[in-house]
Amino acid sequence: MNTMSTSTQSRISRLLLWLSALVAAIVALVLPPAWIAYSDRQAHRGPFLNFHPLFAILYVPLVFGLLWPILVRILAWAKQSAERPLVWPAKTAIVMFIVSASCSAPFIISEYRYYIRGVEAVQAEQMRMARFHEQQLIEKQKALAELQANGVASLSEPLTGPQVDAVNSYLDAHFQNPLELENASRHYPTSLPVMEHLAQKRDCPAQVLEIVYDNVVELQKDRHPQQSVNPSQVLCYLAWNPNVPVSVLVAMLDNPYTQVREAAAANPRLPEEAKVAYLKKAADSQSFSERERAAGDPDSAPEELSKMLQDGNFRVRQAAAANPNTPRLAKTAYFQKTALSEKLWDRILAAQSPDCPPELLKKLSLDPATAKYVASNPGAPTDLLQSLADSDDPETCRRAVASLTKRQKSEH
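Now predict its structure.
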């Protein structure tokens, strides 16, 4: 009976010992990363070139070496109080604790100091930013008072950030006065943020927008403008403004920046002749996005669209193939070439185009990589769709059935 009791106690002892090791291991794995994440978050340290998390590899065994001996000692005391003395790894636990404590002390002190320095740096930066914003607000209020007392032309360039904000606030308050807007556009010709603010006003008078355009074009000639605003972005705002003069839109079509030309060409007020001339030049542009826009525009000339079917960029070819103004003969020749192309994207383009000839669609339906696109093609013959509806590929079958169902509904 005593032997059985001793054996049972021994098994319980080993079980508790392993349980304490498991608890210590879990806490050791969780605590260091949690502390590192917390301290980095409090100190606003970003992930870029942050080697602090690597210390978790070292901290995990140290935490285990501190925690597990404590758990062992607690369990030993509990068993002694229950008057069941058992042999516990007391010496091993004591040695492990002493070694871990000796090694951990420098790291704990270092972590604490590192955390305090980080928090103090964040607090100092917050105080600096608060003082900076307060100073900026004072400067803006001072500039605004000057403008209200002496008019919009009372400040001198170059404007500081608070002065720009003051001028824009003043213009918002006097926006119903076209003379003030015109005076501002003439008096601050090199202040791009002011020009941007005027260009974004949907009710800004046309004469003011024209002055803004002239100012920005002059600034655009400087390849390294010391401004917080990009000149081309201001010109885009001008192109999107419903009051921009037509002459300005036409002039923008010759701007050296692609996004400016595209923005001007997208304005519905642009004369048709100017747009057609632009599209002809855009077909030969070095920018693929501009060629793509020209290829997808129904106002592009048929001969230019035929040429863009041979473009080196897939998206340009795709837009030209989908353009209703592209000549059918050119499309047919293009699809005959792409249907046999080694490039999958070219074959997919042919397979999903409604203008692809039926005989080419039948060839493409034999290719497992393009059959599902043929099944979704609204120009595919009905008999071909019925054949694809029996395909072994579930996606091809599903698309073919959906196309047939849609076609039946449209017929009724």
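The mean pLDDT is 88.
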